[in-house]
Amino acid sequence: MPTDARGAPRRRAIHFVSLGCPKNRVDTEAMAGIARAEGYELAASPDQAEVLVVNTCGFIDPAKEESVDTILELAEVKARRPGTRLVVTGCLSQRHGDDLAAELPEVDHFLGSADVPRFREVLAGRAPRMAVSELDRRSYLVDHEAPRLRDGPRHFAYVKIAEGCDRPCGFCIIPKLRGPQRSRTIPSVVEEVARLADEGTREICLIAQDLTRYGVDLEPAVGLEHLLDALVRIDGIAWIRLHYAYPSAVTPELARRIAGYDKVASYLDVPIQHIDDEVLRRMRRGYGERRVRRMLDDLRAASEDAGRRIFLRTTLLVGHPGEDEDAFARLRDFVAEGHFDHLGVFPWSREAGTPSAMLPSRVPDDEARARADEILAVQAQVSADRQREFVGRVLEVVVDGPSETSEFVLEGRHEGQAPEIDGKVLLVDGTAEPGAVVRARVVAADTYDLVASLDLERPVEVAAESESDDEGGAFAPIT
Ligand code: SF4
Fold first, then answer.
1. Separation of 292 CA from ligand 1 center, angstroms?
2. For ligand 1, what atom is nearest to the CA of residue 175?
3. Model confidence over 329-381: pLDDT tens digits?
4. What ligand 1 atom has the least distance to the C-alpha of 167?
5. Does any ligand 1 atom lie closer than 6 A to the CB of residue 209?
6. Is 139 part of a structural domain of the chain?
7. 49-74: pLDDT as tens digits
8. Using CA atoms, how far apart are residues 235 and 227, in angstroms rounded to an integer?
9. Does 270 reside within a domain?
């Protein structure tokens, strides 16, 4: 039994490092729940733990490097504390487990991206060193039965509704990291979301590799629309937010639910990756510019019908083989049209094992990075123009907590801003608890963030076009 500084017996402690995306974080929280059930307490510092766990990311080179660096850092801690065990899990382990095992003798156990249930064996010392399972349709998926020990704010939570992906995108290694598509049942998701609502969670961020293929693998098959129809009946939830939709799978029915359901945040994260037909063909995305524009039209139509603006986030990939100057110019001009409120852009990186890695007509890395910077600069102008439209308006804002900038400032978000990836609303002239939903008048805007006053009578220097909006009732939708 481990003892504390005074020699008194204490519970065994475990330290987790969760890398990569929110889908990986959900897996880490499930492993943390298993550890607690096995009598472990979470240690904030690796120097206080008997077991060290790195849940790795293996998506692109920078993520792989960060994972290996983190493993080596914790291996140094292990070297200082004999008897400590080091466990590596997640995508890098799934992809390169055998190589890592050969190169990193310090690591005691390797688990894959779908081996959360085997974590109990690891803690009990019954697991083999290499415990990475092959991925198939029966591979594990965190569901309502997983003892998730959630990390972070209580008022919002990621809920993984499906895992894996069946799409053939040429640049993407994720199907090899997470396996084929497998969806949870609607009752399983409803049970988890209802439990989260009972625990005071107000905002649910639905995640998957491809949210819009949710349920196609279930018997009988269901769709994301059906899941939303069930989730909006749960009391206590303010916002259900949709992440990682596939452009050609965004239907008018889905658009109507995003705009029409009060409980669905009028927000959609839909990575289009590019707009040039030839580049999208080489990316094996299965759609072209016309389909993207039809999706935008459907979203705009649903938004106008419901009188509720749908905020859009997208992700672009520049420098993909075959992206010549003209193709890039088309993308840059498309971004300048101003369709997106939030946009992320990545330079293509050659991932061994993907079809795109074998393609000719490569774009030099520094050129790809320069293109990414150029897109960001164009989007910054789009964002600044859009932000200015908010000044003078009264918004519904969820409070995330105190701001890092000042003790007199709170941080929050309006429904068009997702946690951890989009801009925020800095709240002044008042206080409120994390998770509270407040009304605030926007008094200033910068490229990505807004400043809003909890004192609705506070005069605003620059009046917005339509002063009338704040008469639209307590939770006036943002049109
Ligand atoms: S849909 Fe997304 S996760 Fe699936 S292969 Fe394409 S890029 Fe990868």
1. 16
2. 5
3. 999 999 999 999 999 999 999 999 999 999 998 999 999 999 999 999 999 99
4. 5
5. yes
6. no
7. 999 999 999 998 899 999 999 999 99
8. 15
9. yes
